[in-house]
UniProtKB/TrEMBL annotation:
Phylogenetic placement of the source organism: Bacteria, Pseudomonadati, Pseudomonadota, Alphaproteobacteria, Hyphomicrobiales
Name of this chain's protein: Uncharacterized protein
Region of interest (Disordered), residue spans: 241-262
Organism of derivation: Candidatus Rhodoblastus alkanivorans
Amino acid sequence: MSLQFRLGFNDQKVVEDFLSRGPAATTAIVLDPKAGARQRPAVEAAAAGGVDVFWDPGTELLSYEGYGLEKFPMWSGAPYDLPQLATSLPARAELVDRTIATHPEGVTRVTAPHFFVNSPRSAALNIDLAEATVSQADRPVRAVLAIKNSYAKSAAGDLAAWYRASGVRQIELQLSPFGSEDESLRKIVDGFAVAQAFTDAGLHVTLGHSGNLGQVAVALGHASAYSVGVGMLERNNHALQVNRRSKPPKERTDEDTGGGPQAGVYLPALAYTATPSTALKLMQHSDLRVRIGCRVGRCGTNVRGPLLDPREHYLHSRDTEMARMMEQPAGWRSTAELERLRRALILRNRINRDYVAEGDPPLKTRTLDGLIEDIERVQAAS
């Protein structure tokens, strides 16, 4: 049971410092597809702390036209031709060789090249690539399965068996779309069932980009780990990622500060990652600040708390929360999660009633409601 963080382009320093302090529940980091070579400081800190280091080749984004693709080390000058890969053994062998060779120094597991799965043919291509990587790599191999929800639901058992037969023992499952604050109970139950099918097949399953859903999945035993970014990547939507890269980047202005998307501010008491502007509005209420603030490190010595450095705060608060859950005996973990989510739901509802300014959107509660109902259902059945 563990937590994994995927680094953004400029996260190496804050992650290096975090790992140097000895995290309690973090067992792996995933280097950025474009910045693996420059994230050496984080790699060295991970090695010193016994934390695994993975790298994402990003190949699932490179089979589409788009902007900025040349910045990916795995870019070959043109989008990958999936029908050609599916019918050409030499083309697949070349892709596997290149993927293995491109992994940055210090990576402890090789990640097989992978593409988005939405059909039996695309699934077969990914499994073949994973099996070829297992046979050629000099280190253990992990697979990434980015997959459309509807296909995953119908094919989970077969896919899990095929990945197991390929020699893969560790897989990151990225359901799409999945993980927002507006998921239905049905979608949550279906997603957890997919993860359980892979776990039942004997695979170490990481529920990728999954935030609250990932932590609950681990508590219920559906997955062994879950992954998030550093203040982001708590949900997965493959179509949205592709659509963003299909548009030209916005022109920079003199007012731009750069740095890409902003990290969200995680508020553990709400089980919620807020935008910086929303977090600031909430923290301005003194009676709310004492409920949703943080008392760890620098956060505990300044009234602005998590707003000082959202990424540093995100790392230590997520890690601490996961560690507390892991400290519980296995049979108690679902109850601990149920209590955490119930407290968060009560507080979100109170904020929506008493603190949300007119014209501002309320905090969503649908996913929390669904998670609470699912845990109660599992407990009743057992």
